Amino acid sequence: MRSLTEVYPIDFKEAVTVPRVRSAQIVFAAMAFGMISFCGVVVFLFVNGAVAEPRRDAEGMLATIMLLTGFNIVAAVVIPFIGKFVADRQFSSSNLIAAVEREFTDEKGRPLMATPAEKCMILIRTAWIIRLATLDASAMFGLTVSLVAVTTGVAGIEPLYMANMLSIVPLLAYVVVSFPTPERFNETFESRIRNQV
Fold first, then answer.
1. Which of 76, 106, 179, 185 is the most exposed place for a label (fewest CB within 10 A)?
2. Are strands 104-105 and 111-112 parallel, antiparallel or unpaired?
3. Residues 6+ away with beta carbon under 8 Å from 129
4. Contact 138, 170 (CB under 8 A)
């Protein structure tokens, strides 16, 4: 075998086992739950009056939050594109050829005797996690800016800065649209690996 594009769909379907799908589902759910929890804390603090009294240097803090909001807007646009680019590299022709000979390891660093179909599973899961991680980073930054706005009193002066929390929306949308299922693994295999010939 010269490339993972030569893996037969029937072999890939056999590699899509319940434990493998479940592990990807757990990662997706955990990352979404973590961000939803963090968002809930920020909203709770804001709604329940935990907004700090504006400090004497509120003008300086307002400028800082404005700057961080600008960074958040840039991050919310740029980081997902970087994540998509890096994730798509998993399915490049050169990577699909190199993966045939590549040795994969398990979570403890032990060599994993993966069949070509299992290597396809690993590449798909890796691409999804890369996309998820970059969206998670963007969401985390936006929620952190909102938290800083709440804890410094800026949110009390200018509640509009709480809109930084919207950076969680792309992450949640990706989790809903791309949540791992056996069918989604098979669709991704067909569209990103098998049909690359």
1. 106
2. antiparallel
3. 24, 27
4. yes
Classified as helix, coil or strand, 153 is coil
Q: How far apart are CA 185 and CA 14, in angstroms?
A: 11
* 64-109 per-position pLDDT tens digit: 888 899 998 998 889 989 999 999 999 999 999 999 988 888 778 8
Q: What's the pLDDT score for residue 106?
A: 75
Q: What is the 3-state secondary structure (H, E, C) of 48-104?
A: CCCCCCCCCCHHHHHHHHHHHHHHHHHHHHHHHHHHHHHHHHCCCHHHHHHHHHCCE
Q: Give the containing element (helix H, strand E) for 30.
A: helix 18-47
pLDDT at 11: 95
As to burial, measured by CB atoms within 10 angstroms (0-12 exposed, 13-18 middle, 19+ buried), residue 136 is buried
Number of Cβ within 10 Å of residue 123's Cβ equals: 23
Give the C-alpha separation, 90 to 193, whole Å. 10
